[in-house]
Design a protein that fits this description.
The complex is a heterodimer of chains A (239) and B (224). Chain A has 239 residues and is mostly helical. Chain A has nine helices and two strands. In chain A, helix 3 runs parallel beside helix 6, helix 6 packs antiparallel against helix 7 and helix 7 packs across helix 9. The C terminus of chain A is likely disordered. Chain B has two domains: 54 residues; 165 residues, no CATH class. In chain B, strand 3 and strand 4 form a beta hairpin. The longest helix of chain B has 54 residues. The chains are: A mainly alpha (239), B alpha+beta (224). Chain B: It comes from Thauera mechernichensis.
Chain lengths: 239, 224
């Protein structure tokens, strides 16, 4: 893998085709879990793990899977991997499992995993596919962290609540003090849509600025980080 | 002729490959399950022990609490339509306390699972919520981990309350004329937990002797 390839994959995963902001895949777990920052990041980490392993496995097996039955086989692989990750966490990292446990089975329903497997890992070699899985996952993690942090801050006036489940002894940070009355809608499902909408708006504004600047002074090598994603996953419903 | 032959062959081949993948990954999952089972069972027991230790101090008894339990049949009045379990704490063979499973079906968002520990003399040793879906940040203070007041969690007020001293009508929140506190804004969750804790405590207290006398692992039929 050339450094240029690595840069492209990273840029796609972290920004340009960000799963949370551009591809808008896997909205169901994103919106359901992002009530606090710790929950959101926990789900993100579990997803990174599954996406990386799923991309690696599918990429390694891609030459043995007939085109007609690739989707059922990919789903089989993802479901089996998620089950194995779930069991392994339960057995060997039980404290972490108590935090992540309810999120891990949810990952099967996350179409971003299937989307990356189908759109990338099925056509590329194991190394680049693994990097793609990691970068897409990290792209999801930072959006989830921002979304969870925003909702938690507005809704409950705290940050890092639940951190004691991961780091014993640590405690939540009451940003606005204990008298903060709370803003319930931020924590309820509609708040998730509002917050994600705001994030996507900011994302699009930044992209428009970048595109405008690239048009004014076209850099010699770097391609313009223009417009929205190429609709990689639009065939798969955002579930 | 040959076209149809090829189609059949292709389907058979594709089906065969699908079958191979299914078998391979099922075998992988089954072996992972077998390998991890002892470790999972151990952590499950440890987690259960930790929960029981929250409602009953581990020093107050000396028997193997997890193994010394009695099942009871369907008891809709304490929310356990499919029956549940009672653990029996003893010290030097003498009865110390019962820990009973209970549930409230009238929470704000469905069922709230509880464990309630009752001393031999009817005093409550503690109540913990084991599962709930109450509104985050509003009704979820019934779970002390989510309670913002860490120094005096809401659920701690049940410790030391006595079934004999508080009559049935008083086992609810102050707003309904009962004797227990609630937090402004979310009365329903508090009311559901308070009333369910009272019913479970009464259930255990009224059958104290029968529950302690039943053989370990046995089934108590008298639940009405």
């Amino acid at each position: 893998m050339s450094p240029q390839q690595f840069r492209d994959i990273s840029w796609n995963g972290l920004w340009k085709q960000n799963p949370g902001l551009a591809q808008l895949l896997g909205l169901c777990p994103i919106l359901a879990i992002s009530t606090t920052m710790v929950n959101a990041v926990s789900l993100g980490i579990a997803t990174v793990l599954v996406m990386t392993v799923a991309n690696l496995a599918v990429s390694g097996l891609r030459n043995f899977v007939p085109y007609e039955i690739r989707i059922p086989v990919f789903i089989l692989i993802i479901a089996a991997l998620v089950t194995m990750v779930d069991l392994a966490f339960n057995a060997y990292f039980h404290d972490l499992y108590l935090v992540l446990g309810i999120f891990i089975p949810l990952i099967v329903t996350n179409c971003i995993v299937l989307a990356r497997v189908e759109a990338y890992a099925a056509k590329n070699d194991p190394l680049t596919s693994t990097v793609d899985g990691i970068m897409m996952g990290i792209g999801l993690v930072w959006v989830l962290a921002l979304l969870g942090g925003l909702r938690e801050l507005l809704g409950a006036g705290t940050l890092f609540s639940g951190i004691e489940m991961i780091i014993p002894g640590a405690s939540a940070w009451s940003v606005f003090g204990d008298d903060y009355p709370g803003f319930l809608i931020a924590i309820l499902p509609p708040g998730a849509f509002f917050a994600l909408g705001v994030l996507i708006a900011v994302f699009n504004v930044i992209n428009a600025r970048l595109a405008a600047r690239a048009r004014r002074q076209p850099p010699p090598t770097a391609p313009a980080p223009a417009t929205r994603a190429e609709g990689d996953g639009e065939a798969v419903a955002a579930g | 002729m040959s076209g149809r032959y090829t189609a059949t062959r292709t389907s058979l081949r594709t089906g065969g490959i699908m079958l191979l993948f299914t078998l391979a990954f099922t075998a992988l999952m089954a072996s992972t399950f077998q390998v991890t089972r002892p470790a999972i069972e151990a952590s499950r027991q440890e987690a259960q022990m930790r929960l029981l230790a929250e409602v009953l101090p581990p020093g107050s008894y000396d028997n193997a609490l997890l193994d010394d339990y009695v099942r009871f049949g369907p008891a809709p009045q304490i929310g356990m339509d499919a029956g549940g379990r009672v653990w029996r704490a003893r010290k030097a063979g003498e009865p110390v306390a019962l820990i009973i499973e209970g549930a409230a079906s009238d929470g704000y968002a469905g069922r709230i699972g509880l464990v309630v520990a009752v001393h031999r003399d009817g005093r409550l040793s503690g109540v913990r919520v084991t599962e709930h879906k109450e509104t985050p940040g509003l009704g979820d203070y019934i779970d002390p981990r989510k309670d913002r007041r860490k120094d005096a969690p809401w659920i701690a007020q049940f410790t030391g309350a006595t079934w004999a001293e508080v009559d049935t009508a008083a086992w609810t929140v102050r707003k309904d004329g009962g004797s227990f506190d609630y937090r402004a804004g979310a009365t329903i969750s508090a009311r559901a937990v308070t009333r369910a804790a009272g019913r479970s405590a009464a259930f255990a207290a009224q059958r104290m002797d029968a529950l302690f006398a039943a053989p370990a692992g046995g089934l108590l039929g008298d639940t009405q």
